[in-house]
UniProtKB/TrEMBL annotation, chain A:
Boundaries of every Fatty acid desaturase domain copy: 123-345
Keyword hit for Flavoprotein: no
Recorded topology in the membrane: Multi-pass membrane protein
Entry protein name: Alkane 1-monooxygenase
The organism of origin for this protein: Haloechinothrix alba
Top-level taxon in the UniProt lineage: Bacteria
Keywords, sorted A to Z: Cell inner membrane, Cell membrane, Iron, Membrane, Metal-binding, Monooxygenase, Oxidoreductase, Transmembrane, Transmembrane helix
Automatic annotation (TrEMBL), chain B:
Domain named Rubredoxin-like: residues: 1-52
Binding residue positions for Fe cation: C6, C9, C39, C42
Cofactors named for this entry: Fe(3+)
Family listed: Belongs to the rubredoxin family.
UniProt name for this protein: Rubredoxin
Taxonomy of the source species: Bacteria, Bacillati, Actinomycetota, Actinomycetes, Pseudonocardiales
Domain of life, source organism: Bacteria
GO molecular function: electron transfer activity; iron ion binding
Keywords on record: Electron transport, Iron, Metal-binding, Transport
Endpoints of the signal sequence: none
One matching Pfam family: Rubredoxin
Amino acid sequence: MTSATADHGTGETAAWRDGKRYAWLLGLVVPAIPFLAWGLVSATGLGAFWWLGPVIVFVLIPLIDVAVGTDAENPPDELIEWLEQDRYYRWVTYLYLPIQYAGLVLACWLWTTYPMTLVDRVGLAVSVGVVAGIGINTAHELGHKKEKHERWLSRVALAQSCYGHFFIEHNRGHHVRVATPEDPASSRFGETFWGFLPRSVVGSLTSAWSLEKARLARQNKSPWTLRNDVLNAWAMSGVLFAGLTVAFGPAVLPYLAVQAVFGFSLLEVVNYLEHYGLLRQKTDSGRYERAAPRHSWNSNNVATNVFLYHLQRHSDHHANPTRRYQALRDFEQAPQLPAGYASMIVCAWIPPLWRKVMDRRVLAHYDGDVTLANIDPRNRGKVLARHGGVTEAPAASSAGSAGSAGSAVEGGAR
Amino acid sequence: MKIYRCEVCGFEYDESQGWPDEGIAPGTKWEDIPEDWCCPDCGAAKADFVMVEVSPA
Ligand SMILES: [Zn+2]
């Protein structure tokens, strides 16, 4: 350890060097997207470049993932503490915020003064939404830290997407109920992204509110106070949007709404693929077994990992939630996605494709026993019919007639 | 007797109560809990707990 600290500040020791140390700076390309889009449109005259945000995240990053591949490199255990102490890494995440908000102000200026068609303006709003959404990932990294100022920065990053309640619900709600039917942010086997989206948005909101209400009640306080972290986080969004409206006029409001909705929907689709179908079993005492590496989907695709601060090393994140991104490790035995999160997001938007790619992976994870998965109760009959389980025999007999299969199995499931 | 709180989810381990669910007897000192024990609620590592107060009991 002493030899490691002697080299502090260079990201390497005689024995090990962090291959991704400078790659983390690439994450700052994302908040710069509005600037890049503006520059490219000015240089080429092509309005299509206002859509640069979705093109980078859903086309370019998946392609780079394929080209660059995966990396399962882990820092040696004895160097993790040292790696976490290196302040360079946290500054890379802090820097996201000023660029994010400079880009938002730029976009407001462009929406109101730059010659653009309606499609151009929507394109820019979606690009800004990409910045807001990946900003939630930055907020996620910061919101897990013990340092007060980092938790505060987390709320600042969330103001743009009006998702300030996320850092409450995520830590005290999602991390407790992960991979259980009670968690609004864990998706279920047989549940499409479009069914998950409203359930998670509403469920996370009510969860955050009740967590804060309960905390304040323990101090004999009403929830209607700015000490309520849900309310003061939303107040930040209110101040931000009001300020932008005063500065640029109410014409920016519809675009601000589009970017916020796109932003939090991007977070929700990432939520969707992190724990799809995975379930913690109940122990004899009636509690759920502890969250373990087998309850999260992981990926070692380098490009997505660099842009998402190792979020895809999700099992280690749940085991060590306050551990800084640069020190998160790959678990060999943890469930692996077939591609990086960026590609899987596109897959999640298309439910038949998602089912084709993921359902057999969930089944393989449970050695073919679908009853061990977190099954969507609304589709339980259908899922059991298709994938066996307790109704295997009757389901097989009715498999030929698709029309009657649904109702026949509905009865069988109960 | 001390109380330790999970920094992630707020779960509290009270030394005077122990955690009988898993055979940790009342009165078990924090130092005597195995290093690989983790938060029963959220699975966070033992290192993510901080001492919060001395329990009255
Ligand atoms: Zn916990």
